[in-house]
Amino acid sequence: MGDEAKALLGRLAAGEESAFAELYDRYGAGLLAAAMRMLARRQDAEDAVQEVFAALVRSRRRLILVEDLAAYLFVSLRRSAGRVAERRPRMAELDVTAAGDPESAVNSRAEAVEAHERLHRAIRRLPAEQREVIALRLNGELTFEQIGRVLGISPNTAASRYRYAIRKLRDALRDE
Amino acid sequence: MMNDAEMSSDELAELEAEVRAARPASDPRLRGRVLAVVADELVGQHRRGWWNFAAGLAAALLIGLNLSLAVAPASVSMAGPPEPVDLDAAAHELSQAVPGLSPAEARRELFLLRSGARLPLWVQPRGSIARHDIDPTN
């Protein structure tokens, strides 16, 4: 972990509000994207991200012991997403088909919107474990080693899940 | 990034870029909401920290008070310096009460008494005097 990340962890542990803002600016979008892959519903994903930050404040004094901030955040996100999903299991299930991120495509051209939607549909059809790896890799920008740490699997398994997922995505997009 | 026989690296990079781009737009509303929660939690922690400190202090004071009350009876004998005694007068009185006791021995016995030892009332020189030899009516 770099000195910058260590310094940020120190500030977080000290309870500096600006450090949490910095953390959000750095990881917020990735966390939200990954949460949306896990939970499908945007509202649930936002709740999960919010819970991550609330939990961070509560356990901030232990943050100095963290060795990999990104991995720590995504582990925390998985837990929060699990809790949110437990609270609203049926709703999350029902919303999977209606999920997506219309806001991000509002101003795009019709074709781009369609491509975007096709991609979302293809991602949603992936098995949860592959979808998670895709989210951590491409939205969380984690390495396979970090993904392995987050999911409790080896880096090789993470890489192979990713490979399968990418292949499936490509096939799904070709077929449509 | 990875070698996939079925996929060219360009194709892979394009797909990855597409998935990356498909991330939800950042929402300032969520940022505000998250940071408000952070601020609330921090304030709550400070408040709880103060109350925890106050409760801890009160508990420590109560324990201290309790302990001092428990120890006080045992420490009464050490409460202060012994009252001043006129040793010469006391030695004289003791010599009178115990005729066989020389003034020097009387003083010694008084010192022993003052230091908390029990007076053995056992006098050695010329015809020893034991406790049973002393007539309390004298």
Describe what this molecule looks like in 3D.
- The complex is a heterodimer of chains A (176) and B (138).
- Chain A is mainly α and 176 residues long.
- In chain A, 78% of the residues lie in helices and 0% in strands.
- Chain A has helices at residues 3-13, 17-39, 42-58, 69-87, 89-95, 102-105, 110-125, 128-139, 144-151, 155-175.
- In chain A, helix 1 crosses helix 2 and helix 9 crosses helix 10 (155-175).
- The radius of gyration of chain A is 17 Å and the shape is globular.
- Residues 91-100 and 104-108 of chain A have low confidence and may be disordered.
- With 138 residues, chain B is mostly helical.
- Among the domains of chain B are: 28-74; 87-133, no CATH class.
- Chain B has helices spanning 9-21, 28-71, 87-97, 103-114.
- Chain B is rod-shaped.
- The chains are: A mainly alpha (176), B mainly alpha (138).
- The interface between A and B is medium-sized, with 41 and 28 residues.
Oligomer state of the chains in this structure: heterodimer
Largest sheet features of chain B: none
Rg of chain A: 17 Å
Distance between the termini of chain B: 115 Å
Q: What integer value in Å does the Rg of chain B equal?
A: 44 Å
Q: Tell me the greatest interface.
A: A-B, 41 and 28 residues
Q: What is the overall silhouette of chain B?
A: rod-shaped
Q: Please count the beta strands of chain A (DSSP E, at least 2 residues each).
A: 0
Number of helices of chain B: 4
The tally of beta strands of chain B, per DSSP, is: 0
Look at the helices and sheets of chain B and give the structural class.
Answer: mainly alpha
Q: How large is the count of helical segments of chain A? A: 10
* Tertiary shape of chain A: globular
Order of helices and strands of chain A: HHHHHHHHHH
